[in-house]
Amino acid sequence: MDGAIVPVAAAASCHGGKETMLAAARAAGKSEMLERMAADYPKGPHDQPQSMCPAFGSLRVGLRMRRVATILSGSACCVYGLTFTSHFYGARRSVGYVPFDSETLVTGQLYEDIRKAVFETARPADYDAVVIINLCVPTASGVPLDLLPKEIDGVRIIGIDVPGFGVPTHAEAKDVLAGAMLKYARGEAERGAVARPRAAMADGLRISLIGELFPADPQIIGSLLAPMGVSLSPGSPAREWRDLYGALDCSVVGAVHPFYTATVREFAAAGRPVVGSAPVGVDGTADWLDAVGKALGVSADSAKAKALPGIKAVLEANRVNARMVVSGYEGSELLVARLLMEAGAEVEEADPGLPDTRDIFGRIWGVALARLVNGFPETRRHMLDPGLLEVARSAAGLSAIEFLDGEAMRVAAAHAMARFHQKYDLVLCPAVPAVAPLADAPVTDPVQALWTQWAPWTFAFNLTRQPAISVPMGFTASGLPRAVQLAAPIYRDDLVLRAARAIEIAQPFVMPDLQ
Predict the structure, then answer these.
(1) What SS3 class is residue 125?
(2) Which of 198, 332, 345, 486 would disulfide-bridge 340, Cβ 3.0–4.6 Å?
(3) What pTM was estimated for this model as a whole?
(4) CB-based contact 127:63 (threshold 8 Å)
């Protein structure tokens, strides 16, 4: 019966395949949600390129907010991976978990368990909101988070479905929660008075920016807009619930990052005009300032006169004559691509089509590491990094035939990239799947972390022996660095150095105050 909780059989578990999960979710009454996601987040070449679960995006948005509790409902392995990843990347926040088994799914007890957890967590002294995220199996089984109370003792309750079979990447998953929160806050603001943000907001025209921005970005954008008499409102995703009200209380919205479809929809429902793209390069900055000015009914001439000559001089002094391919999904790569286009590069989006390089790297680098470790006296090996020791132990038992098979696969990957570079001079892609991990973050499975979280896109070019460079792109709101990566054909180190130099000059990297 549509709307009932339909248990997912063993074959339709999170290992049962995307189509099986989709069919189960539709049978459980989730068709409307799936259709909305399909419309908001079209599938394409960027579909789930990362190794982590897309729900990490929603989890990240919740964990970044003050006084917001997050509860996950999903398979234990999924919850472990998500919480491990979130803590690994510096969240250091508790995450609630409601376990389940076949019986609790069949009887509907899982919903009751979730409801109980929500009531126990919704303490107004501690939290402004509680977020509950259904992962794949609860979503496919139709667990109805929409039946939860909308608030408990003044604590807001936000229930969302973020299934890996419905959300392409964690970039879109950020929007699922950010949009749901903004919708809730919009309803509160429409019903009456709400709290002001902690930080003071200037009078007059204000812009709210959409996207996870580097801390320096709002200041830079604010300085660009200052000649127009425009200041900044809080952005979305927000850092505190009351900031959502400040974001809605803006004159115009700047959708700096793509993928935030639901968030844009809520701003539009609040009557706020939305300007897309970002101030990147000469033409991009001019177009963006003009669009903001048009939305606000003010001239952008003074802002362009102040900003554009300097940007133009930098790009003309650092030309990049190359044909590039973009392989990414977060949004940062797109802004860098536009900048390089104005510096003279031809840019396309494409998939290099590399084979899975984890097995190749595991054999070649792992054996080399095992040999290195073996050269250390046993009495001193405890001084080495535990993760490196674990990787060395896992590779020490490989046979000569397995090692040579790995070398043959490495050569095949190098040939594949050589053919790819017959068409493209440069590859632009993320440096790592997410922000930099904390140096002292605990690692339960270093072998798995190496392949899936630390360096899945950097060791590929080590294997193919191509020149590659990581270019800093500023910092996240929590102060952790981010970067993009450029790679060129073998022996073309000059290409990556010239392109990296153009990015560095046009978007200087400024170290934060570490004190």
Answers:
(1) coil
(2) 345
(3) 0.70
(4) no
